[in-house]
Amino acid sequence: MEQTLKIIDWGPSAYTQSVNNQIDLVNAKKADPSSPDLLIFTEHSPVFTIGSRTGAESHLLWDQQTLKDRGIEVHKTNRGGDITYHGPGQLIIYPILSLHKRDLADYLRKLEIVIIRVLQSFEIDAGTREGKTGIWIEDRKICAIGVAVKSWITYHGLALNINPDLSHFQGIIPCGITDGYVTSLQNEISTLPEKKLIKERFVVEFKSVFYELGK
Prior knowledge:
By secondary structure, the chain is α/β, with parallel strands linked by helices. It is 30% helix and 28% strand. Strand 3 (47-50), helix 2 and strand 4 form a beta-alpha-beta unit. Helix 3 (104-121) crosses helix 5 (195-212). The radius of gyration is 16 Å and the shape is globular.
């Protein structure tokens, strides 16, 4: 049976509430495996999220007063990976999918392909870096990826930098990067596409990769 994909746009959302909502959706999908896969778009208030990688907490550089002055929250989370930043100007994408192949590495590679294709459609030549997560333009990281699975249903996902406040990344060693820095679409191309167009392109490429190559 062909699996359907439902697109949901939460608009602005609080990070902790979005995680709770995702877990509820994962549990609902586990209870009803025939329900549609979900692709959720959102945008978070400024927050540093600390993943499950050993030593991730040590990559938070700002003290509590600086965090308060900057209006940035800090939350530990159960996704994979290191520390990263979410905030206005990012496109956050949470796929809630049943992984029939039960292959997390395959899932991550497919997410990478989707983002690379999306960026190529806006004439940005991006790719991966050996031994590092996310999507890069040479030594500039433009998209963070951190996922989790429960009963082989995915949650958490991707953060694509469209035009966020990049100075906020100075408060962390993002994803443990010591030989590169963070960039955005705004920094890389002369004309910034509307977020609506980026979402539409993401849906096209996501369907192409996940429902033609299998998941």
